[in-house]
């Protein structure tokens, strides 16, 4: 049985209708004979609102508390996605980054993955669960909640795909794939059928929002194959 890791960005789960659409896609993937681990970002706008709230209550929010605060966005989106999957008659369970066995260093707001112990995910998959994992976050050796910075759900998905020896890592966004420039701004942007990791790194380093640069580096080093598509 193939094991597929899918990642859904914030716009893909930006409202109840979109969450239901994502749930249907996930369930369809399982019904095609695959085991599915889905990494979910916070709903569009939620992270920005939480950052604003933090700034409203403190001129210099503590980084530890920012991680605790921001991690709630992905957890909420995961729970909602799981509920939508249940409504379709499938078995699913949501996990935080810590629950999923993602161990990080102790750097708050810009943590790096140190290790992943996917035993619980494997057990849940073997029991026919769809596993929904909160992106963007993990836990340090001291038990502290940590986050990976903007675009961190990409890193979560790629790291999990490597740890689980997944057959594919699919990155779903609000565009049809990787383009020469932002197709929402430039009308004649060209979709790229394939792109090398070094080119993708260059685009990310230049400010492109295609994918987090650290996630691309992780994929390059692990030899993971990525597929980007519209959710």
Determine Rg (CA atoms, Å): 17 Å
Structural class: alpha/beta
What is the helix content? 25-40%
**Poorly predicted runs of 5 or more residues:** none
Given the structure, what is the number of helices?
7
Shape: globular
Element pattern in H and E: EHEHHEEEHEEEHEHHE
How is the quaternary structure best described?
single chain
Q: How many β strands by DSSP? A: 10
Average of the residue pLDDT scores: 87
Q: From the 3D structure, determine the CATH topology.
A: Carbamate kinase
Q: In this structure, how is the largest beta sheet organized?
A: 6 strands, parallel
Structure report:
The chain is of the alpha/beta class and 231 residues long. It has one domain: Carbamate kinase, CATH 3.40.1160. Helix content is 40%, strand content 21%. The protein contains seven helices and ten strands. It has helices at 16-31, 46-57, 63-87, 119-126, 152-163, 197-205, 213-222; strands at 2-8, 34-40, 92-95, 102-104, 113-116, 130-134, 137-140, 145-147, 168-173, 226-230. It has a six-stranded parallel sheet with strand order 3-6-2-1-9-10, sandwiched between helices. Strand 7 and strand 8 form a beta hairpin. Helix 1 crosses helix 3 and helix 6 packs antiparallel against helix 7. The longest helix has 25 residues, at 63-87. 44% of the residues are buried. The mean pLDDT is 87.
């Amino acid at each position: 049985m193939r094991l597929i890791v899918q990642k859904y960005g914030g716009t893909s789960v930006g409202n109840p209708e979109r969450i239901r659409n994502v749930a249907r896609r996930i369930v369809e993937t399982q019904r095609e004979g695959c085991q599915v681990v889905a990494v979910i970002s916070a709903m569009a706008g939620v992270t920005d609102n939480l950052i604003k709230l933090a700034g409203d209550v403190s001129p210099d929010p503590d980084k530890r508390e920012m991680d605790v605060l921001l991690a709630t966005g992905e957890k909420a989106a995961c729970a909602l996605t799981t509920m939508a999957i249940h409504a379709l008659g499938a078995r699913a369970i949501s996990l935080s980054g810590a629950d999923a066995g993602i161990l990080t260093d102790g750097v708050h707001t810009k943590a790096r993955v140190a290790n992943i112990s996917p035993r619980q995910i494997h057990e849940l998959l073997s029991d026919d669960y769809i596993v929904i994992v909160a992106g963007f976050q993990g836990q340090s050796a001291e038990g502290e909640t940590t986050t990976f910075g903007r675009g961190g759900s990409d890193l979560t998905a790629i790291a999990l795909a490597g740890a689980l020896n997944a057959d594919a890592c699919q990155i779903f966004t609000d565009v049809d794939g990787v383009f020469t420039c932002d197709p929402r701004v430039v009308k004649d942007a060209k979709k790229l059928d394939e792109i090398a990791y070094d080119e993708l790194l260059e685009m990310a380093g230049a400010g492109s929002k295609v994918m987090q640069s650290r996630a691309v580096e992780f994929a390059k080093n692990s030899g993971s194959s990525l597929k980007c598509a519209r959710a």
